[in-house]
Design a protein that fits this description.
The protein has 408 residues and is of the alpha+beta class. 34% of the residues lie in helices and 30% in strands. A hairpin with a 5-residue loop joins strand 5 and strand 6. The N and C termini lie far apart (82 Å).
């Protein structure tokens, strides 16, 4: 099958075209058509596929194009709908979803500009690019990035946008390519398509782009983080800048209303709230500790002594390991106290603590329980902890540990 004539190469603004069906079938289990020519952009190079519609020129039956993929140069239009597919040789009318296409043009061109900006301002080249439904990301080949570097790159990029530089996309000959200062070498040897944005960036690219940089509108960097030794920058361009501004404005005003302050007072209000929360957390922690000490004494007193020892078993499913350790230690501070304290709702956690006057080894007692649970643990003579197994077998594990503690 001959490669599809890709009309968007010459005109990214083309939204309607006619074509002839050259193949009908399935593409990875979905109904699909191949045409002799198409303005639909297939997914690739970090840019998602176009969407739109195909209409049979004779019957006027219409199909939604919900995905477009390329296979060995052939563009497959993956369709949805119940209408019978047209036959090979039929004429169809293609209609591009322009809002989606123009959004992708803004984001992709903005990526070229921001990539050039990071090279110009901090010598940080881009290694990969991804355009999602909400934001765009690029990975920079550097390990750290400061606020100042980010703002400098963003300012450089927006200046380039507002200069309304001409953008030229064309296929070049090897001779022409040798005289173009490409940002990085092309990934193909033949049919190299170069996108030039004024004289600030020249890149081998098969994507769709506007005619001038001003159509990108603006670039706003939303954040950045370290990813696999590089820096991933998240940003938006054009119409997405407005959407992101509205989203953040709604969030800020909603938070301000909840705190009964103006949105400009949010930082101070949040700082006060954090201080209050930290104070309450400290008070809660201290109160919990005092309560646990009192309850540990009660559990100890309620346990009958055997040969001068009190083997106290406690199960607290929602308690974390630190609280289990605290309660076990309280019990082990009392004369003859041996504590076996368990918790966990999905995976059992157990802490064993022994008073010095018992002569018992917490590790041996814990090991008896771990054998039943199929878990692992360790520690010291007077304090050991471990975990494993399901809560359903906890009672059997506790019984084994009590039996071992009574023989210590």
């Amino acid at each position: 099958m001959e490669p599809t004539n890709r009309l968007y190469y010459d005109d990214s603004y083309l939204t309607q075209f006619t074509a002839r069906v050259v193949a009908v079938g399935d593409y990875r289990g979905r109904p699909a058509l191949a045409l002799d020519r198409s303005a639909f952009y297939p997914e690739g190079g970090g840019q998602p596929a176009d969407r739109g519609w195909l209409t049979n020129a004779d019957t006027h039956r219409r199909w939604a194009v919900h995905d477009v993929q390329s296979d060995n140069g052939v563009v497959w239009h993956i369709l949805s709908g119940d209408a019978p597919l047209p036959a090979v040789g039929n004429s169809v009318i293609g209609q591009i979803d322009w809002a989606r296409r123009f959004d992708h043009m803004q984001q992709h061109c903005g990526q070229h500009i921001l990539t050039a900006a990071f090279i110009a301002t901090c010598n940080a080249p881009t290694t990969s690019f991804h355009l999602s439904e909400r934001t765009v990301t690029i990975d920079l080949a550097i390990s750290t990035l400061t606020d100042e570097q980010v703002w400098a790159a963003e300012a450089w990029a927006n200046t380039a946008i507002w200069q309304n530089l001409p953008i030229q996309a064309r296929f070049v000959t090897p001779t022409e390519l040798a005289h173009i200062p490409l940002r990085k070498p092309p990934t193909v040897n033949e049919q190299v398509r170069v996108v030039s944005i004024g004289d600030i960036d020249h890149s081998a690219c098969g994507g769709t782009h506007p005619a001038r940089s001003g159509e990108v509108g603006a670039i706003a960097i939303l954040g950045w983080s370290r990813q696999r030794g590089m820096i991933r920058v998240e940003f938006v361009c054009g119409g997405r800048v407005i959407a992101a501004l509205h989203e953040r404005d709604r969030a800020a005003r909603g938070a301000a209303a909840a705190l009964s302050v103006g949105w400009t007072e949010l930082p101070q209000a949040i700082a006060r709230l954090q201080e209050t929360q930290q104070a309450l957390q400290r008070e809660l922690t201290q109160t919990q500790r005092e309560l646990d000490a009192m309850r540990a004494t009660q559990w100890y007193a309620q346990t009958p002594p055997v040969d001068g020892r009190r083997i106290v078993t406690v199960t607290l499913p929602t308690a974390g390991i630190e609280r289990l350790r605290t309660i076990a230690s309280f019990i082990a501070e009392l004369p003859g106290g041996i504590a076996i304290v368990a918790g966990g709702t999905e995976r059992v956690q157990i802490v064993v603590a022994c008073a010095a006057d018992t002569g018992a080894d917490a590790r041996e007692i814990l090991a008896a329980g771990m054998t039943v649970l199929g878990g692992r643990g360790g520690g010291q003579v007077h304090l050991a902890q471990g975990g494993g197994g399901q809560p359903e077998v906890l009672s059997a594990a506790l019984a084994a540990m009590v039996e071992r503690a009574s023989r210590a």
